[in-house]
Amino acid sequence: MTTTAWHADPLTWGNGPRIFEAFLEPTCPYSVRAFNKFDELLSQAGEDKITVKIRLQPQPWHMYSGVLVRCIIAASTLEGGKQTAKQVISAIAAHREENGIHVSPTFMIDGLVQPDMSSGDEVGAWVKKTLGN
């Protein structure tokens, strides 16, 4: 039986002496905002001057976080390595942004974000908003 060595490509870009590490929760809108700035950070600072390292930090209060982190790590083992993992992170981020979900709780009715709804609202206000009464 032949065994294949398993290798997860480190989520590291640049090769400079200064190390910029970011501990990200890929489903968190604030982490997504930071992630979306890393290419520009490398461009402005210079890939020969800094190294950006992403450390995945799943948080239990973000639904499916642990599963999605494992998907990102699994993607880093595929052809393309860290670039493939970056595509998965980008897809997760795009889903968050596409649906306008930047804070929690966010409420949607029939697929539309309701920015005027709040956890502080009375249940009756939710019923009225949901049913259009």
Write structural notes for this entry:
The chain is α+β, with helices and mostly antiparallel strands and 133 residues long. The protein folds into two domains: 1-102, 3-Layer(aba) Sandwich (Glutaredoxin); 103-133, no CATH class. 39% of the residues lie in helices and 16% in strands. The strands form two sheets. A three-stranded mixed β-sheet has the order 1-3-2, covered by helices on one side. Helix 1 packs across helix 4 and helix 3 (65-75) packs antiparallel against helix 4. 14% of the residues are buried. The mean pLDDT is 86.
Task: Describe the protein's topology.
Blueprint: E1 12-14, E2 18-24, H1 29-35, H2 38-45, E3 50-56, H3 65-75, H4 82-98, E4 108-109, E5 112-113, H5 123-131
Parallel strand pairs: 2-3
Antiparallel strand pairs: 1-3, 4-5
Keywords:
single chain; 2 domains; alpha+beta; 133 residues; Glutaredoxin; three-stranded mixed beta sheet
